[in-house]
Amino acid sequence: MSIEELPDNLDYIICATGYESRCTYAFGQLASKKQFSKKICVGFNDNKVLAREKSDLYFRENKFEEHIIDSSSAHEIFNLLKGVIDISNLTNEVNIAIDYSSMTKVWYAGVLNYFKTLELNGKVINLFFIYSFSEFTPPATSGPYNAYVDPIEGFSNLTIPERPTALIIGLGYEKKRAFSLKEYLDAEVIYLFIADNSFSQEYYDAVIKENKVLIQHTPSENIFYYPLNDITYAEMILTNLCESLLNNYRIVLAPCGPKPFTLINFVVSLNNNDIDVWRVSAGSLNPPVDKKANNGILVSKIEIINPINSMST
Amino acid sequence: MNIKFKYKYDTFNARYLSFEEVAKSFITNNVFEQLIANNNTLLMGPRGCGKTTLLKMLTPKAIHHYNERKPSSEKIFFPFIGIYIPADIQWEKQLSNFSKRFIDTPEFSQKISRGLVNTHILISLVNTFYDLVKQNSLEEKINLIKEYEVCDLLAEYLKLKKPISLTFYSIIIALKSRVIEINTIINKIDGGQETISDLKFDDYFFEEIFPTVSVCCDAFKKVYEDDQVLKNQPSRWALCFDELEIAPKWLQKELIVYSLRNEEQNFLLKLTTTPLIDSDNLFDLHKSTEKPSQNEDYKVIRNWVFNQESSRSWEIFCKALFVSLLYREFNVKTDLEKIFGKTTSNLNIATAPLNFISNKNAKPYYEGSVEWIIFKTLAEKDASFYKFLDKKQITPFNPVPPSKDSEDSIFRKIKPIVYSRHYFRRVGGLRSRKVNDLYSGIPLLFEICDGNPRTLLNLFESILPKLKKDQKGRINSINLSEQSRIIKNVSELKLESIKNNPSSNMALEDGKRIGLGEILDKIGKFFFESLVINEFNMDPIGSFFIDKNIDDRIVGLLKIGLNLGAIQYINPKQDITDEDIYNKQYRLSFSLYPHYNLPIREYSVINLSKILPEYLKDKGRIKNKPKSIRPDFPKLFDYDE
């Protein structure tokens, strides 16, 4: 959906302020068109470089309530939302916009997890996840090795190892991120999801180049290509794949690529407790890069109606 | 060992295979013969060394499939029924992340962990019962009655919620539903619908598992002992825990410290673990009585190459496996040396131009032979080798053995060093060698894999596309350069995989990170310097002791390296010791030697603090690089640029 299709009055908007210039873009597009009852801005407690100062100032001028938290802490984002979100006095349909363009995986996972566990008392929560695409920046020539390969809190249940692991990786263009994950997890099968070239040829070429060895060693029938601007298609393939694997495997989703694909990983996991989503990252060792918005925006609507969640774009 | 070409570049993990598949391609070896003895056993080895395969073979289902295909003389029997209890990284990470989340309520965390682990063990147990019954065809009516009878007892002993259908399948489903119960408890706490203090836990969250397993085994025996199901089966049971090192710490401690000493058990323990047990975490060092003792309480089996005998066994195993795999692929019996050549001949590659001027009839090391030419050539370009020969009273311009004894004691011994120096050195510097042609042939192909069947199978899969059958039905040979290229590639991939393992990277106080890869690179380069760049030495450095001067964080990384098979513990004498990883001898895994351009040999030992002076305890990281040992080679490591 487009930003024009968002409700005119939104109860909350949650943005992140960081070193990427694009973190202010989505609100800039919405500010004159929509009304917000409460505006919340979450800032990183580290990497206060590049566009950060300018972004902080922008959100301050636009009367956002500011909060600084740890970029890797699921607890902190959960507790923050617990303190600032109150749906008890709102109508039966609560509308919340979240610009996750510059958020860490742990943060937007925390946002979803918070609403997943919230007592709804018959209310419906519409979460509008907004993503600003960025101009293409080439991948770093030598990135750091993985420092975190862990289940993300709220998206991993306890299991017993009676079935093998199936690993589903959403490929990105960071060097070394997805390499050897299969060996590390002792996964029996591996599937790859790759954003096709319909959105950006440069990005697609970079993904293929940086993951050449992994792609070469994965059977072609285990590789799925999806259009980045039609994320419901990817959700459908991912859901079908997971359903076909669940009887024989414990599933680990390891999104290393574009955030809209990571978001659908969380949605698929929300609807099935036996599917884990894992964080694969170099953590704070990743060098900061100022990603600038390229004017493209993707809005994904997630309806939280316990116990069933649905998604549309 | 087993192979399953299910996917391109599979990692060949026995965990993926069914018991039937494991049995189908299993090749017995002396490690397995030790493992089936009637005692508690610790099977130690790095990842990929074949521990899971061996453990799976202890189950009645696997051994039944194995024996079914073998003549009487080759059937295997052992004095226990194995219950295989798997573990994996996904499970370990889920449990450790859960424990971190509830770090402030350790009692709750421990209860959940115990409940889950107990459930897992019981499911494995009931599955084994089920397999035993399935593989012996009882008359249907008797079968149903017996199953009903035993499941009635199991439901009672396991305190399963009633009503329950009294079949093995239902018992397993009821046990599995406990996992759902456990997650429901956690979700309710997460959502604030319950508080930890208000929770009521069923007995299985508290129970010690061994008495429960014991009564269940007794119940099974009671019902089936007169039947075919147990008629030819041994009376003891063995709990076979795979990958003990990734099981929760409380379970590791209970298994090792308490259970190994309990002679009253009617079951044995067969445990697989890494090459060293993390004694600091497992034992209260002040209570030495808590430690089980080797040989008395348990036997240790080392499943890696650590001495000449294990090296010989490994070579025999590899040959049998390669011949069997090639037969499966091409349906012909093969002579491996015809396909891959002998390792000794690969050295000629380094000297190919010299072969033309050598005298083929000359006796090795004597005038005119390839060896003689290389020794002489090196003496001309390497002043330290010249001096070495001179000191040994060997004429550098005519380096022939002065006596018969010196052929072995000097010439044969220094030959790999001389060849490496000749290959990498030129007058006044180093040669750029992007691909090192020195790795090929039998037995080097096997030595490179260093006792690790997973590496061996990866290597085999890389070689396979190069093999074709000719018109006479013979498999073509692979040229030595091609073998070297494949081996180098396998070595690079293994190193990248080790470097990218998240446990191989450690945070430092200053926000930077240090990785195992960085440590391995420094060690590899040090060995190369010692062998090729420094003054010529008959005994260059090629192994190290981990001494107590080394920073604890680096020691932590080396332990991970040991588990991942990046470094090998050689000449092992102790397993569980206060000294832990310290003061034992290690080398890099041979599988990494091609990356570091090292010959496959074990050389002298040095304290690691001499190799890593910038990582000494309490000194932090030294910013300046250690000084070059040889000033006549200003650019030490430009050979690979």
Main features:
heterodimer; A: 313 residues; Rossmann fold; six-stranded mixed β-sheet; 9 helices; 13 strands; globular; B: 641 residues; alpha/beta; five-stranded parallel β-sheet; 47% helix; 8% strand
Kindly report the spatial arrangement of strands forming the biggest sheet of chain B: 2-3-4-1-5
Q: Which whole number gives the mean pLDDT of chain B?
A: 84
What Rg of chain A do the Cα atoms give?
Answer: 19 Å
Radius of gyration of chain B: 29 Å
Q: Characterize the quaternary organization of these chains.
A: heterodimer
CATH fold name of one domain in chain B, please? Rossmann fold
The percentage helix of chain A is 25-40%
Enumerate the spans of chain A where pLDDT stays under 50 for 5 or more consecutive residues. Answer: none
Average pLDDT confidence of chain A is: 91
The unreliable regions of chain B are 1-11, 622-641
Amount of beta strand of chain B = 5-15%
Biggest sheet architecture of chain B: 5 strands, parallel
What percent of residues of chain A are in strands? 25-35%
Number of domains of chain A: 2
Which CATH class of one domain in chain B? Alpha Beta
Determine the CATH topology of the largest domain in chain A: Rossmann fold
Write the layout of secondary structure elements.
The complex is a heterodimer of chains A (313) and B (641).
Chain A: E1 9-17, H1 25-30, E2 35-44, H2 52-61, E3 65-69, H3 74-84, E4 93-99, H4 105-117, E5 124-134, E6 148-151, E7 165-170, H5 181-185, E8 189-195, H6 201-210, H7 212-216, E9 223-226, H8 231-245, E10 250-255, H9 259-270, E11 275-281, E12 293-305, E13 308-312
Parallel strand pairs in A: 1-2, 1-4, 2-3, 4-5, 7-8, 7-10, 8-9, 10-11
Antiparallel strand pairs in A: 5-12, 6-11, 12-13
Helix pairs in contact in A: 3-4, 4-9, 8-9
Chain B: H1 19-24, H2 30-35, E1 41-44, H3 51-56, H4 60-68, E2 80-85, H5 89-101, H6 106-134, H7 140-157, H8 168-190, H9 209-224, H10 228-231, E3 236-241, H11 249-258, E4 267-273, H12 279-282, E5 299-302, H13 308-330, H14 336-340, H15 343-350, H16 352-355, H17 370-381, H18 383-391, H19 404-424, E6 425-426, E7 429-430, H20 444-449, H21 453-463, H22 480-499, E8 505-507, E9 513-515, H23 516-533, E10 541-545, H24 552-564, E11 567-570, E12 585-588, H25 593-596, E13 604-607, H26 608-611
Parallel strand pairs in B: 1-4, 1-5, 2-3, 3-4, 10-13
Antiparallel strand pairs in B: 6-7, 8-9, 10-12, 11-12
Helix pairs in contact in B: 6-8, 6-9, 7-9, 17-18, 17-19, 21-22
